[in-house]
UniProtKB/TrEMBL annotation:
Family: Belongs to the sigma-70 factor family. ECF subfamily.
Residue stretches making up the RNA polymerase sigma-70 region domain: 45-113
Protein name in UniProt: Sigma-70 family RNA polymerase sigma factor
RNA polymerase sigma factor 70 region 4 type domain mapped to chain residues: 141-192
Organism of origin: Roseinatronobacter domitianus
InterPro entries on file: RNA_pol_sigma-70-like, RNA_pol_sigma-70_dom, RNA_pol_sigma70_r2, RNA_pol_sigma70_r4_t2, RNA_pol_sigma_r2, RNA_pol_sigma_r3/r4-like, WH-like_DNA-bd_sf
Segments of this protein annotated with the region Disordered: 109-131
Pfam families (UniProt xref): Sigma70_r2, Sigma70_r4_2
Keyword tags: Sigma factor, Transcription, Transcription regulation
PANTHER family reported in the protein's UniProt record: RNA POLYMERASE ECF-TYPE SIGMA FACTO, RNA POLYMERASE SIGMA FACTOR SIGZ
Highest taxon in the source lineage: Bacteria
């Protein structure tokens, strides 16, 4: 006999009796939040993901109070930006945890900022013209080398190094196997190395 429990339904408003083994359609709930600002749908998302986001943040080193504050901020962002969720690019969980990961990075950056009294006074020294020219040339060379990569490889490099996504997160977003992602990144890095030498 399947045990019954009350869960928010992804197809209607309010609570419905469903089996404990039934997982709500989180993507449908996000769509309801985006389209109609459905409070019941958001409450279901919050009840499920809020504690999980807080636990994730605490595992990543945040104290309980910071994790709670950050989790609240993540869920407010979910409410406000639900319309940006694209089920074709990522699952609801991946989308929400990507927001959480980015908020955690923001927290770490904020915490590492120097106090105003620790900041140096006066203008910073101008960079050496030779160094500035060399940096410009290296940047132009790298941009050209990136543009020369096949689209599939360039896309992987951009996601891994510019968007700072892990291989698993790229797999979630693209639906590609992990081996394909690693192979494309490896091939792209080899081409870049060759182009820049």
């Amino acid at each position: 006999m399947v045990r019954q429990t009350w869960l928010f339904s992804a197809t209607g408003k309010g609570l419905n009796r469903v089996s404990r083994d039934t997982t709500p359609d989180w993507a449908a709930l996000l769509r309801r939040v985006a389209e109609t600002q459905d409070n019941d749908a958001f409450a279901a998302l919050f009840a499920h993901f809020g504690p999980r986001v807080k636990a994730y943040l605490m595992k990543s080193g945040a104290d309980a109070a910071s994790a709670e504050e950050c989790a609240q901020d993540v869920m407010v962002t979910v409410w406000r930006k639900a319309g940006q969720f694209d089920q074709g690019r990522a699952s609801a969980a991946t989308w929400i945890f990507t927001i959480a990961r980015n908020r955690r990075i923001d927290m770490l950056r904020r915490d590492k900022r120097p106090d105003p009294e620790d900041l140096p006074w006066g203008p910073e020294a101008e960079p050496d013209q030779e160094d500035a020219l060399a940096l410009q040339q290296e940047t132009a060379q790298l941009t050209k080398a990136l543009r020369a990569l096949p689209e599939a490889q360039r896309s992987m490099i951009e996601r891994a190094y510019f968007a700072d996504l892990s291989h698993s997160e790229i797999a979630d977003v693209t639906g590609l196997p992990l081996g394909t992602i690693k192979s494309r990144i490896r091939l792209a890095l080899e081409r870049l190395r060759h182009s820049l030498n």
